[in-house]
């Protein structure tokens, strides 16, 4: 069965309209489960949320829907719906069912776990991050079947919905490695991101990677008197400061040797696509809650956060930090650094370069210990990748043929682990907007956009099935 | 009455020998009073200590011995013994009767407030810092009278023994200013310092000054995500580190403009006197509990801590300092700096230079607040000052004509307030040695040296009376 694009869009919209109310009722039921993974008291709710979702996916039609245990006790949900076509490619959708903590007294106007629709918005913890964006896939795959007349999706559709994303996915990599055979896919679709704005639909093409470390510097065996000894022995707080200060040159470029090795220069096309976005520095600063910009010379703010690597001081501490003064030379100091990485950078090489750089900069009398916490690789899908083009086409249909623009994510996510372990390109399909208030009070999702997500996936599986062959 | 030096020394020693036992009994009685000024529970003991001392000074012969209240509630003791000679100069002795906290469980082998004599050492909290060194003046002035046959000292002798030195003398300056008429003196003798070692008697000639401040830097209005915003906004922890790192150049010289203005270069004679001391880097490092030296190029370690100014980071803090990692850009950071000052430097000018230097180095988007905690001026008595020479001569007699060498103090003390307010040169007469363990468990005083202190003052008042006319 095949439709012209216009009639396909109509078919999908009609199908969605018929199921809209039930879909929202179901989503509300899920949102009522306070699956706060960071709070041990909510561990039973995280489990309940996983079981609820597995049951709902079975009801949706997935022949396989399993709750997968992790070492941390916050289970993930895995579901699978084979295409039936032996040549069909496999797509793995990623999302998470755990949510950030939330309480009325944090500034919520309503109970964060009692969803409320006001106008075109659904307010609840997890409405956008990430239950809403996981859940649109349930109605989406049904709309896809309705559109195509198929009894199974055009791709082998898999879902992996983890339960510990909001406290750093500590066991996710292990889970993916252990289950790599079940998770094998030709592409990963991540639905845990956003769009530029309500009026500028966008597709994210990549995320920065991350490697971070702690450097502890040891000087005197105990805090010593800054009068008796000051000016004659190395002060670990000063040396920590010198390390942090030496991380960047006067152009705000990272000075660690080899740091930029392997990074391809931004192409004119890439820069143009970024420059085309309706960027307003004042509102960006408001989002960043910051009062000025500062970054690598020669790049715009968006290029700096999306396409260029960084070294940031996440924490520094040494000596007396209380009220008033205490004239000591501290015995130790700590420096917490994170490096955001872009395509071409290898976290292991960066780690080794940072270790060497630190060791070479310490004076006699300062011992140190450096610990890396592990790394997330950057991911970036080329603009001309057929799978990315399929996402763009499907989204454009959902958004009434709107021009789809491109963003990237400055942050880093477990999606990169899927890319790494499964060797599959990562696509991003997110319909959240900056005003949705992730991690903040009064989190909401725009219902119009939520159903655009449903619509997009209704078109996407057929399009991807062709693109990935 | 006049003796040859030899017979004078004999006279003094005989007098001391006769009164030695009673002197030690009295000192032990005083040491039993736990006058811990930093612990509110001991406030009555601090008062009792002051009253005990005032009574003892009356018994010693001081016609005036008063307990002076301070705003903090830790009283000082003032005593005065006029010479009777209208042309006699006035000397003010400074010390303190409060002590550091101490408890058996800190590692004391005996009760810190139950003095014990073992061999030639008296163990008790305050034995050296500072009750022992205050108390040798009581027997010293009696020995002086016995030696000279006078009924009053050869100088107008004043004592000021404060009760809050061990928690930073917060009300001392105010007290000195309020009582400046009663305290007026031609010279101040500070007995709250030490000598180089048991075998190297020394006189301290000066202390460094101090000014210290807190700089708080404000960036984003709250901690923000280092992925979403990293590389594009100024990070206050990084900027704090850059300030701290920029404080020194590659020669470890302080870079604040004008910092070294007004400092006279060390003379060859001064450098020779410092170089003559039996300095051993290894044991100095052991005292500093440090594992390497680092300081201003072109100066020895002792020159660096005694005769050169410093900028030290006493504390730095910003962002996440707990276990593991947290990938944020912190909203603020704090930097605690202290500057040790030497003769010629003016704390107010330094404060102003630091304020300007900080303000000029902050990027857009970083606001700041800088607070100075007040300042202590440096003091330095010239080597050829007749009063200093008198101290050297008296000490040499007590130490069997030993060569007296010269030290300085790297720290800063309330002595400088006396110098400032009274406009009098400060002399140091201390007989404590580094092994005495100030502020540490098992504090002790070497009895031989304690009585050398008594002997020195027996000679000193006559010698100073001549030197200060």
Automatic annotation (TrEMBL), chains A, B:
Peptidase M20 dimerisation domain location: 206-364
UniProt xrefs under Pfam families: M20_dimer, Peptidase_M20
Broadest EC class assigned to this enzyme: hydrolase
EC number: 3.4.13.-
GO terms for MF: dipeptidase activity
Keyword list, A-Z: Dipeptidase, Hydrolase, Metal-binding, Protease
Matching InterPro entries: Cyt/Met_Dipeptidase (IPR051458), Peptidase_M20 (IPR002933), Peptidase_M20_dimer (IPR011650)
Protein name per UniProt: Dipeptidase
């Amino acid at each position: 069965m095949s439709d012209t694009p216009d009639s396909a869009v109509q078919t999908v919209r009609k199908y969605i309209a018929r199921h809209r109310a039930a879909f929202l009722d179901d989503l509300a039921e899920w949102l009522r489960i306070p699956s706060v993974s960071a709070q041990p008291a909510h561990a039973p709710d995280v489990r309940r949320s996983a079981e609820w979702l597995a049951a709902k996916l079975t009801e949706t039609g997935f022949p396989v829907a399993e709750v997968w245990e992790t070492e941390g006790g916050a289970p993930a949900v895995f579901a699978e719906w084979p295409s039936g076509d032996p040549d069909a490619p496999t797509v793995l959708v990623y999302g998470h069912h755990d949510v950030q903590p939330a309480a009325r007294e944090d500034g919520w106007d309503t109970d964060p776990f009692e969803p409320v629709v006001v106008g075109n918005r659904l307010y609840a913890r997890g409405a956008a991050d990430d239950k809403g964006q996981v859940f649109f896939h349930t109605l989406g795959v049904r709309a896809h079947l309705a559109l195509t007349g198929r009894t199974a999706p055009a791709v082998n559709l898999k879902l992996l919905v983890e339960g510990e994303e909001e406290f750093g996915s500590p066991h996710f990599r292990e889970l993916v490695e252990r289950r790599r055979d079940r998770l094998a896919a030709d592409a990963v679709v991540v639905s845990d991101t956003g769009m530029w704005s309500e009026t500028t639909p966008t597709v994210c093409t990549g995320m920065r990677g991350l490697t971070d470390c702690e450097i502890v510097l040891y000087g005197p065996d105990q805090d010593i008197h800054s009068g008796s000894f000051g000016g004659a022995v190395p002060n670990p707080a000063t040396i920590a400061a010198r390390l942090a200060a030496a991380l960047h040159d006067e152009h705000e470029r990272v000075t660690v040797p080899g740091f930029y090795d392997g990074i391809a220069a931004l192409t004119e096309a890439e820069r143009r696509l970024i420059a085309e976005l309706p960027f307003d520095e004042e509102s960006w600063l408001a989002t960043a809650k910051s009062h000025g910009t500062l970054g690598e010379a020669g790049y715009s703010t968006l290029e700096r956060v999306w396409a260029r690597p960084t070294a940031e001081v996440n924490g520094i501490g040494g000596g007396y930090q209380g009220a008033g003064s205490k004239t000591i030379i501290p015995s130790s100091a700590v420096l917490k650094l994170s490096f955001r990485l872009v395509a071409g950078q290898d976290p292991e090489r960066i780690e080794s370069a940072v270790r060497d750089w630190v060791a070479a900069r310490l004076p006699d009398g300062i011992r140190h210990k450096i610990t890396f916490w592990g790394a997330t690789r950057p991911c970036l899908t080329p603009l001309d990748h057929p799978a990315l083009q399929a996402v763009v086409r499907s989204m454009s249909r959902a958004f009434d043929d709107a021009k789809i623009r491109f963003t990237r994510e400055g942050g880093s996510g477990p999606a990169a682990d899927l890319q790494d372990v499964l060797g599959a390109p990562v696509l991003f399909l997110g319909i959240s907007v900056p005003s949705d208030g992730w991690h903040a009070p009064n989190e909401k999702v725009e219902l119009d956009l939520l159903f655009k997500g449903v619509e997009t996936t209704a078109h996407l599986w057929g399009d991807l099935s062709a693109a990935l062959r």
